[in-house]
UniProtKB/TrEMBL annotation:
One of its GO terms (molecular function) is nucleic acid binding. GO terms for biological process: potassium ion transport. Residues 6-130 form the RCK N-terminal domain. Pfam families: DHH, DHHA1, TrkA_N. This is Phosphoesterase. It comes from Thermococcus paralvinellae. InterPro entries: DDH_dom, DHH_sf, DHHA1_dom, NAD(P)-bd_dom_sf, Oligoribo/pAp-PDE_c-di-AMP_PDE, RCK_N. It comes from the Archaea.
């Protein structure tokens, strides 16, 4: 028996915006459009939409559209008097339904509420409001960020194409005692170079130490050789790429005349002062001290150039970032984007084979899910990690998400056996997270803790009626989000 009905959405206005929203929601939601114009209403009905013909600012029309049973009302007009009249009529017939409205750029939800208080002498609230200017601004910022990501990757692609026209072999040099970030980055650069038709070989001058570094070397399955200063192995290559290193810093195998062959340097450490003058003027240099891992820069290249990235290399890059960011405790914007990009491609069994004692297979997988599934409400993050067996990983994920820039409070939850397990953290001195959890979940389960950290547990109980696992997760997420934000005194947006 299907116990979960589709969410009922009322779209008030069947013009260009209303129709576009309806088409996007069709199928997943039960959509009803209210349209005053008879011809437009007929056209929408012929296109397969559920349509109520009438003026949506009238009670009779809203009742005909079953406003009492709807889960969300979307007002698509930008005419302020109509918006106010409509909100008043909706609230007269359904006190609790969330209202989403499009507002002109110069009007705020507070303006509408204040005007309505004067005109109708009633307290009303708009739950969600969208301004065209802000919506366009958000899209433009996302596009500009995308161009920023692609700029360096495109310059690298151009350099590799140039090298291919002059020769076909590239020597990739890591620092003397390569660590996971260095090895994963070198393997990634080799894969990119091969995509442009170059033969690439990776070398280093010292030793691969520590069991996890040796394990990663085996897992990557990429040939990496030890070479000596002045050796033929270096001299025979027409082009050199330095990855995660610079001469005389943590790299000692290059002689002065070898510097003339350096065509590529990719690093996240500050460029050494004397190096710029010694490099060929046309060398590709991508040195970003604000990024905490070279693996993050290489992941960005793969994403921007849309190159195939296998799970072995994804796992290596993910691990390289993990180690160089001190277990994800120090992340730049580029590092975070790289983790998001890699998380779904990582093979967590391979991670386990690296045998690093600080990160188990399931912990890494749950952490990846916590990053990918995070939802932000102002300065609060809520993340659903799904069905798991490792309760401790929920707390570790909460600790990690609290480190994100601009975030002051975090809640992570997952389903373990027959219960929902919750961990929350805060660094907001105004919030006592233990009290918040008790208030939010005390009546339906148990919750509590200290001022900065706490936990809660809820029996699945009624959630078990959900028809499948995804419905169960969605219902749990909706309930937890609503109760937690309410206890924090924050509106969902």
């Amino acid at each position: 028996m299907d116990m979960v009905r589709k969410m009922k959405v009322l779209i008030l206005g069947g013009g260009a915006i209303g129709r576009t929203i309806a088409e996007a929601l069709k199928g997943e939601f039960e959509v009803t459009i209210i349209e005053k114009d008879e011809l437009r209403a007929k056209s929408l009905a012929e296109s397969g939409f559920q349509v109520v013909h009438g003026d949506f600012s009238y009670t009779a029309t809203l009742l005909k559209a079953h406003i009492d049973k709807a889960d969300l009302a979307i007002i698509t007009t930008m005419d302020v008097p109509t918006i106010k009249r409509t909100i008043q009529v909706i609230r007269s017939n359904n006190k609790t339904i969330p209202i989403l409205t499009i507002l002109p750029d110069d009007i705020t939800p507070e303006d509408i509420a204040n005007q309505m208080k004067e005109e109708f002498e009633t307290e009303v609230k708009i739950d969600y409001a969208v301004s065209p200017r802000k919506a366009i601004s958000k899209v433009i910022v996302e596009i500009v960020e995308m161009f920023g990501e692609k700029k360096n990757a495109n310059l690298l692609a151009k350099k590799l194409q140039e090298l291919k026209q002059k020769g076909d072999a590239l020597l990739i040099i890591m620092h003397d005692n390569p660590d996971p970030d260095s090895m994963a980055s070198a393997a990634a650069l080799k894969a990119i170079a091969q995509n442009f038709g170059l033969k690439a070989h990776i070398v280093y001058g010292g030793e691969v130490t520590h069991h996890e570094n040796k394990a990663l070397l085996n897992v990557l399955g990429v040939d990496m050789s030890k070479v000596s200063r002045g050796s033929y192995e270096i001299k025979r290559y027409p082009f050199i790429a330095l990855i995660d290193c610079q001469p005389n810093g943590n790299l000692t195998i290059l002689e002065e005349d070898d510097l003339n062959n350096i065509q590529i340097i990719i690093d996240h450490h500050q460029i050494l002062q004397s190096l710029k003058e010694k490099l060929p003027s046309d060398a590709f240099v991508d040195i970003r001290p604000e990024v905490n891992s070279t693996s993050s820069i290489l992941a960005e290249y793969f994403k921007a150039l849309n190159l195939p990235l296998n799970e072995t290399l994804s796992t290596g890059l993910f691990y390289g970032i993990y180690v160089d960011t001190k277990k994800f405790s120090k992340l730049s914007h580029v590092d975070l984007k790289a983790i998001e990009f890699l998380a779904e491609k990582v093979n967590y069994e391979l991670l386990d084979k690296i045998e690093h004692p600080d990160i188990s297979t399931e912990t890494a997988e749950i952490l990846a899910r916590a990053i990918l599934n995070r939802k932000i409400y102002k300065n609060v993050v809520i993340s659903n990690v799904g069905f798991i067996t490792n309760r401790d990983a929920i707390a570790e994920s909460a600790d990690f998400l609290l480190r994100l820039e601009g975030i002051t409070t975090v809640l992570v939850f997952g389903i373990v056996d027959d219960r929902i397990e919750i961990s929350a953290r805060t660094r907001d001195v105004r919030v006592n997270i233990g009290k918040v959890l008790k208030e939010a979940f005390g009546e339906i389960g148990s919750g509590g803790g200290h001022a900065q950290s706490g936990g809660a547990r809820i029996s699945l109980g009624i959630f078990k009626l959900a028809k499948d696992k995804s419905s169960l997760l969605r219902l749990a997420e909706e309930a937890i989000t609503e109760k937690f934000l309410e206890a924090l005194g924050i509106k969902e947006s």
